[in-house]
Amino acid sequence: MASSLRLPAEWEPQAGVIIAWPHADTDWGPRLARIERAYVGLAAAIARFEPLVVCVADAKVRARATTLLADAGVDAGRLRCVEVPYDDTWLRDSGPLTLAGAGRFQLLDFRFTGWGGKYEGSRDDALVETLHARGLFGSAERRRIDWALEGGAIEVDGRGSLLTTWRCLHQRHPQMSRAEMDALLRDAFAVERVLWLEHGYLEGDDTDAHIDTLARYAPGDAIVLQTCDDAADPHHAELGRMREEIAALRTPDGRPYRLHELPWARAIVDGGRRLAASYANYLVVDGGVVMPAYGDPSDAAAARVIAAAHPGREIVAVDARELIWQNGSVHCLTMQLPAGVLAT
């Protein structure tokens, strides 16, 4: 493909967002009614701004999803359902990473291993191939890359820089050196440089420190990062070191990034297990940002930080307390698709 292809930044124009609807055979089964309510809120927020592609496991799941969304007032004209098998609903990690340029598209189809073999993921690994074969992406090319990578593990600025964490990719590929992984990422995503963070983690996150729970690029050489101001919290020191790392990063022309620091939500514990309540796990859509809220006093402050980082966009908060029960939040469940890639 032409070297002009690149992975657009999330704030660039989109054709829509793709999600997968929860059902009884996914890990959401024990709390299905509760998670469906949360999904309706998420889907309704996205559909306010742009089309929504909904993966459904079968006709029964399709009927359930469309009924719930219709009852919530979601415009049916904004929805497109596609029947396809999947193991779970984390489309950020099993969905396509789409390069775009000069009217051409390439779907990067990395190997999905259930976050380093933690969970079964064979159907999720086949998801991009199946959707591509069914014509969802028109004339886009699919490029299979037999190397484990999840979309939540990388963050790009659309201008040649990629941000990731050593903890995650080293766990996936302990036999590879950083230089080897650096070269592979630069080739796959057509970026000029890879920036690695050594620090940063969240309890309740089983992705081994995906970058999209910790730090996000924003327009104008900015980075939005999750901080912790509670000295008694076990995250305080580690996120403080991450902040120091990010503050030391430089743009390609040698300037420091502008930092937007997200507040810290109080601990959310379920059955004795701390859940990963990150405000960094938001989704940018055309004209808006869909952000996770946790019923916390810091929700409003987080919305102000995100609004400052993404000026001119409406900030819509969705209740993410049910979502984090399965260790992810808004961004983890969604994958944006660049403008023009969807077949009409």
Task: Give a written overview of the molecule.
It comes from Dokdonella fugitiva. One of its GO terms (biological process) is putrescine biosynthetic process. GO terms for molecular function: agmatine deiminase activity; protein-arginine deiminase activity. This is Agmatine/peptidylarginine deiminase. Keywords: Hydrolase. The structure is a single chain. The longest helix is centred in the first third of the chain and has 16 residues. The protein has one domain: L-arginine/glycine Amidinotransferase, Chain A, CATH 3.75.10. The radius of gyration is 19 Å and the shape is globular. The chain is built from ten helices and 18 strands. The strands form six sheets. Strands 3-2-1-18 form a four-stranded mixed sheet. The protein has a three-stranded mixed sheet with strand order 4-5-6, covered by helices on one side. By secondary structure, the chain is an alpha/beta fold.
